């Protein structure tokens, strides 16, 4: 019968002082007497080893831990027995903490942590695998405390984020956004997610974009980008340019059409900038702006293209010279 407290006390004393030769001999004798006793020892040893990590258990509820320990111990011992005879002892306390660690980790490793930013705020998250996520203003992600499956998955609920993913070929990294997801092995990229669309820009490496289940996926490499219309389930391929300007405070234009320049300036400065022209714009912009104000950038465009700038209440209109 294994319902004798002295058996448990013997094993705990041995595990607490494995160098004691008399305890070692007594435990070895106990283990060799039957298969059940060997199994009993191994299970108690497993729980004891878990208790070594108990310093991480700041959030464990001791009353719940005791209840879970009782249930767990009934499952691992050949016969059910009363825990009350020794639950107040030091040995039992250590074992309770050990099983608490197992329960706490198994129930909380998959719990998601929410990180949210507000207006005019940026924040960053370093994941357990070494990956880094930088959030723009008004953005939200959810991520697990630890990755415990064959893949690494986080959720971008809204807004914009820059991802620098640690390489791990055996565990692909996935960013989930509603029905859509981005899968990578190790790379850096930018996502801007809203209820209407997803903008995906790849800076280094390559990613796989899956718009929804059973839809053909798209592979993007460094310098490539796409815009996905969620309602229409359509996406447009484009070259990646200035997707991380919100992070670097730098705008770089290389052979960029003026119409695209206006779109990127609108996004960066959060101002509606429109181009009105009655001619085909052949001249493209090559320029770099670092920490410049919108007025400074517009002055450069004015000189370069001979534009007329009209400031309205809700927008800025850029007009090209009329063709006579």
UniProtKB/TrEMBL annotation:
Pfam families: FecR (PF04773), FecR_C (PF16344)
Domain FecR protein, residue spans: 117-207
Domain Protein FecR C-terminal: 250-317
Signal peptide residues on this chain, from the entry's feature table: none
Source species, domain of life: Bacteria
InterPro entries: FecR, FecR_C, Ferrdict_sens_TM
Name of this chain's protein: FecR domain-containing protein
Organism of derivation: Pedobacter fastidiosus
